[in-house]
Design brief:
The complex is a heterodimer of chains A (about 160) and B (about 600).
Chain A: H1 9-37, E1 44-48, E2 64-69, E3 72-80, E4 83-85, E5 88-91, E6 95-103, E7 108-112, E8 118-121, E9 125-133, E10 137-142, E11 155-160
Parallel strand pairs in A: 3-6, 5-11
Antiparallel strand pairs in A: 1-9, 2-3, 3-4, 6-9, 7-8, 7-10, 10-11
Chain B: H1 22-26, H2 31-60, H3 70-105, H4 113-132, H5 160-188, H6 201-232, H7 246-280, H8 287-300, H9 316-344, H10 353-376, H11 378-384, H12 388-418, H13 424-450, H14 467-497, H15 539-549, H16 565-579, H17 585-591, H18 593-604
Helix pairs in contact in B: 2-3, 2-4, 2-14, 3-5, 3-7, 3-12, 4-5, 4-16, 5-6, 5-16, 6-7, 6-8, 7-8, 7-9, 7-10, 7-12, 8-9, 9-10, 10-12, 10-13, 12-13, 13-14, 16-17, 16-18
The chains are: A alpha+beta (about 160), B mainly alpha (about 600).
Chain lengths: ~160, ~600
Amino acid sequence: MSKEHPLSPEKVEKVFLSLAAAMLLVFLLALFYSAYAMGMHLPGRDGEINPTMVRETPPFDEPGLKQIEPGRYEAVFLGMAWAFQPREIRIPAGAEVTFITTATDVIHGFHIEGTRVNLMMIPGQIGRATYTFTEPGEHLIICHEYCGAGHHLMYATVIVE
Amino acid sequence: MSSVGTVTPDVHHTSHEEDTGLWSWITTVDHKRIAIMYFVTATVFFFVGGFEALLIRIQLMNPEQNLISPELYNQLFTMHGTTMIFLVAMPMAVAFFNYVVPLQIGARDVAFPRLNALSYWIFLFGGIYLNASFFVGAAPNASWVGYATLTLPEFSPGRNVDFWFIGLSILGVASIVGGVNFITTIINMRAPGMKMMRMPLFTWMTLVTSFLLITAIPVIGVALVFLGFDRLFGTVFFNPAGGGDPVLWQHLFWIFGHPEVYILILPAFGVISDVIPAFSKKPLFGYPIVVYAGILIGFIGWGVWSHHMFTVGLGPIADSFFVAATMIIAIPTGVKIFNWIATMWGGSLQFTTAMLFCVGLVAVFTVGGLSGIMHASAPVNLQQHDSYFVVAHFHYVIVGGAMMGLWAGLYYWFPKVCGRYLDETLGKWHFWTTMIGFNLTFFPMHFSGLFGMPRRIFTYSADLNVDIYNQLSTVGAFIFGLSAIIMTWNLIRSWRSGEPAPANPWGAPHLEWSIPSPPHHYNFPGIPEVRSREPLWDPKERADIEAVTMAEPEREPIMPNPSWVPICLAAAITLAWALVMTGVWWIIILGMLPVLFFTFLWAFEPAFPEGH
């Protein structure tokens, strides 16, 4: 029977549990260190906005790319059924871009392929995420949050030159 | 086959023959018949949901196809998700609760037999109502999570979302009633000597699941009522233009939605925790640990919901908390997987079809569990949010976990239900087509997801280079569909002419195997006394128990009356909800009158034959 086996299930289970607990501890320490000591937060909620007045409220009255200082940009994006505004932005390689987003109607997604920018565009909420594009190329922005009949048509492009 | 506890089945020991006509099924309050009706109905819906899945897979087989319209596609994936969760996985588990739990604890029926019938009929009518939407061309189309503000009347003006929120409300009633019934049954109706820590694991997991049902379903109930008011009476719970908050819906939905995941998986864990020991001829390794792990999953399951919402931007404190809780919940699940393996370790294993499904579950569910731990990490989660990677993950958990467990239970308990084995050759075909078809369908989705394919899209661009993965998935889906046909054919054939099975065909240790197959309508002529966790594995205890359970009773135990009130009350409840669609307050109130009427009939109807 298993009891005489040098590796009895009882022993193995204890090893297994301690290993799992140790791994968890490491994960969690890494998590709290990165979140609180290094200040790495998920991109996300950055204020509220009246969703019926989006087009009158700055910065959403002028969607598009704006240069703030050399190498730093702000890109204001609106999500609506079923398109992004603007449809395309062009930025030089190495630029740090802050995306500021909201939705005018239903919840949309704002996912830039190949980057870690992924936000929900929520009507009534402003989202913010910053990313530095180092390599020239093209990134698709897609809506990942199901938003109705034209969901699959909703995309925009970031062109890094 | 092993022949431990061989007793020739003999159906004619009862002193009165049971009715078998249609009316007897409509009015039945027997938990065994209700279980069979649950199972058959869930299987029919399994084919409906599976057919929807096949249409989805055909549409996605090649990029930029236009075989079905985007409008129909959106209805199909919404109804596929809603059907598979609310009309297949949950009721199929309830079928097993119904059949097995009273037999495992030594009870003659559940605590509230009429309520049990009511649960079934509400489930049936709710399912029919939900699917009737296809015939008026307005099937729900806002996805199974129904995120506000898409579900608000401005953005979904048709009847589609009305069918969805009313249908789910009706089904919720059935689940809550069922949960109450099983908690009461398990706590109050155990045979003498069956302490909590002697209960079979399936009964334990039924208890935990029932607590989740009565606590989680009311949360979505609240959300659906809010949504109903927003849609029909102009409130603004979820409408930011009026000061509401669409994120509130997400919180309410996932506070229900994550415990719901455990409502789906825990019954399967219970099944295989009973089946693996039976086919390893060893008691379950670390019984108390497996029980506590199950309870712990039930509790922690309440603290992980926001890992569905990392992209909302909840702030660093909430994000860290939910990352931590989600990682922690992996531990009790890992413990269970470990204990199943340790139970098999050194046992004399018998690879019947039931056991194959258990081993399959342990392997496949672990894949889903691992991708689940990947999602626990917020930065990784952010990359995979709403991609096909997530679709792969939850199908591995729900099909590879919940459904495989229930199929294991099907092959294990079928001989008890009809006194015949399910065919083992067909069973192995069922198992292998399931394994191959399932993995071929869902494993490639990990890749299509990581390469950027979002879920819930009607079609995708050829530039995405995910054609090959989608083609593999489509081929797999058809093989998987074939497995369902093999299963059904096996069920029909074995029901009619399967090899006869004795009372305890597997030499299993629990009480349900101490009575004839199929059981008498009163289950136990006398109630046996239990002295251990595996009563039938102790020769002395088994002899004592079978002296009671196999005995011919001098007078047949008195069982509750059949009743036609449950089906009428269920119809009245469904009608009352359906009338909510009119949005006219006095029609809605009028619609509640039949509910009141049948409730009164119910209250004054004698539950037992006169004089008892």
